[in-house]
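Recap from last week: sequence in, structure out.
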Amino acid sequence: MQPTSRSDWERLPDDPDPERDLGYVRASLSVVRTENGKGHYLFLPEDEGDIMDEAFIIADDAAVTELDSAT
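Predicted structure tokens:
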């Protein structure tokens, strides 16, 4: 199910399952730190074909946490 209206969203559980409830598809991503000096990262899909589908994330240092060092 991919919610498209307000009523669709309101019917979802408070903590929806990304795949089952929202229709998201998990993908393997490569993390690349940019060299612009601003602490930005690119999360790129390992399948290059997905780049054309805009399946990537741009994030700064504040949005990135190493899971093994998170408290």
